[in-house]
Amino acid sequence: MKKLRKDQVDRMNKINELIRVIADTDRKFFYSDSKGSISKFVEGNKLFFIDKYTDKKIYPYQLSKRKGFSEGGTLWGLINDFREWIITGSSRMAIMAMEDYIVQAGDIPLMVWIR
Q: Could you give phi then psi for residue 35, rounded to 5 degrees?
């Protein structure tokens, strides 16, 4: 079983912190009122995403059927960009995705946080 490296775990924890900020802001994406839970990334033999509503362990990759994912396509794209940053350390895609989200949400502090 291949474990995540320390730098990947550190990036995963940063993204989980960002997801908590998003879940606590405005429209509360990634938060389930009925379950009182927040989506998050977890490590296993691969990097998985736990959905806040279905509580399913999802292996996010762009061509997946999104089985168990309760959010829409835009957030699926964001989760895939986050996954790429966690695994590779390449922040270009995640930052571009966050800038798109921030422009739509109008929440400037998140852009400062991610950079």
A: -105, -15
Residue 30 CB neighbours (<10 A): 26
Q: Which residues contact 64 (CB under 8 A, 6 or more apart)?
A: 58
Q: Which helix (H) or strand (E) holds 9?
A: helix 6-23
Q: Is residue 21's pLDDT more than 50?
A: yes
Considering the chain, what is the average pLDDT of its residues? Answer: 79
Q: Say how many residues make up the chain.
A: 115
pTM for this model (two decimals): 0.75
Can you give the residue ranges of every domain in the chain?
Answer: 6-107
- Provide, for the chain, the percentages of residues in helix, strand and coil under a 3-state DSSP scheme, each rounded to the nearest 5: 50, 10, 40
